[in-house]
Amino acid sequence: MLRLFRFLEPYKKVVIVILLFTFLQTLGTLYIPALTAEIVNNGVAKGDISYIIKTGVFMLLTVELTAASAVAGSRLSANLSSGFAKDIREAMFIKAQEFSINDFNKIGTASMITRTTSDVTLIGQTTVMFIQMLLPAPIMAIGGLCLAFAKDKVMALIIVTTMIAFLLIAFLLGKKVIPLFKLMQIKMDNINRILRETIIGIRVIRAFNREKYEKGRIDTAAADYAGNAIKVNKIIAILIPAIMMIMNLGIVCILWIGGKRVVKGNMQIGDIMAMAEYCFLILYFLIMGVMMFMYIPRAQACADRINEVLAIAPEITDGSSKHLKRREYAHLEFQSVTFQYSDAEEPVLSNLSFESKSGEVTAIIGGTGSGKSTIAKLIPRFFEVQSGCIMVNGTDISNLSQKELRDKIGLVPQKAFLFSETIKENIRYGKKDATQDQIEHAAKAAQAHDFITSLENGYGSHVAQGGNNLSGGQKQRLSIARALIRKPEIYIFDDSFSALDFKTEARLRRALKSEIGSSTAIIVAQRISTIMDADRIIVLDEGKIVGIGRHEELMKSCDVYKQIAASQLSEA
Description:
Residues 16-298 form the ABC transmembrane type-1 domain. By secondary structure, this protein is α/β, with parallel strands linked by helices. It has helices spanning 12-44, 49-98, 101-107, 109-134, 136-151, 153-200, 202-207, 211-264, 269-311, 372-378, 402-406, 423-428, 436-445, 449-453, 472-484, 502-516, 528-531, 551-557, 559-568; strands at residues 332-339, 349-356, 361-366, 387-392, 395-396, 409-412, 490-494, 520-524, 536-541, 544-549.
């Protein structure tokens, strides 16, 4: 957890001011019992009304100063907690932007969400508790004991005995509760994972009538978390009455023994009241400190999980080349590229070599699992190749910054993803300064303009989360428009026409010819009708190229291509 304290660096002055207010609050709290004893001993016992009023006014000012210090300290602590948590969360978000897909897979989406939300929140809360509850505890204990010993050593020893009994019980119960705290965040991860799967996969769940099964899964995970939380609360439920019993026994002993000492003339009655208050204050702040100590292991577990994310060295790092400029043409080339996923036993792509020149459309086709979509992911450098290189305009993409590379690419992913914004903003996502005319032009080319204008609010229509209020074909066309408005050097269409009917697809392909211009286009497809007019068709089989050429050439020379064609096209 100490490694996260570097995020407190901008708040050093705030921390110092909070500590000052906390110190003033503690001193004021300790001084009030002494004033109470003075009023009883020198005012009430002697019948000196003027002394009572004079000391009472001073006590009132002390209380007001203590309260003001407490309020100011609490307010600053809340601001510190929010800022501290914000900075950690921002650092995690920035770090996540640097991750490759493999880096994300190491953590998991559900765990990443939990770490960025509840883990960071708990760290912020623990920081405030540490400042407001743990730091005053030793000051209160040491200061209270010093004042108690100054008034009466016998009474002070009663307070010390009470403290020892309390700390012993807290230690024994803490040994049981601390491991349970560490498990709580892991069990919360499991709940988030199942809940996320259930929400995203609700259509599949309903289609297969698996609602009861999924309810059982989430019930089991929730019951597991609840069982752990109940164990924690049972232990705390034992701790609090035990502490109250020790506190009350200590006060009873002070009143009983103190009364006898007053009768004998060894101490004054006001000192008994001060001792009882010191006993209560010391134990109260110790309770807060012990509760804080029990939360620290849970906070430590959260801190470890956060540090794990921040410590990951991104698999893909920016290159140092500064010489690649935007050109009037685009040239993409794969040179003996071999790629294997981190958890796979064999390479997905083996010794792949091909090129796509300016103004050309290169299509990639093959059976399921042949590696088509993997090629689309390697060009923007979502993964790092094991051997060989991918060249853009004669420069290895590993020598480019990721921003520089991706500025040259317009990607339409296999699964169309839209943001919960308006249609206009979703298309403009490809070019943040795009005008309305440019947005409409891209939509027309993507064959999306007609359905957009048929909506009540046109381009201002809202898109639900994930585009769930649009059909699959509509989402694909908006994704294509988002790529077209970018006017990139390289277009990548990763099976982006699968949800379109043949008539719409044909119009779209005709529009793309004029849109692509001098750029190069990579089209990954399942349907031969999508790629028949491509300048170059690459046929993949088990990660290897088994044919390159135009449609007519491959129909004569490539058996794999002929088999695909036979399953999709008529003899004619």
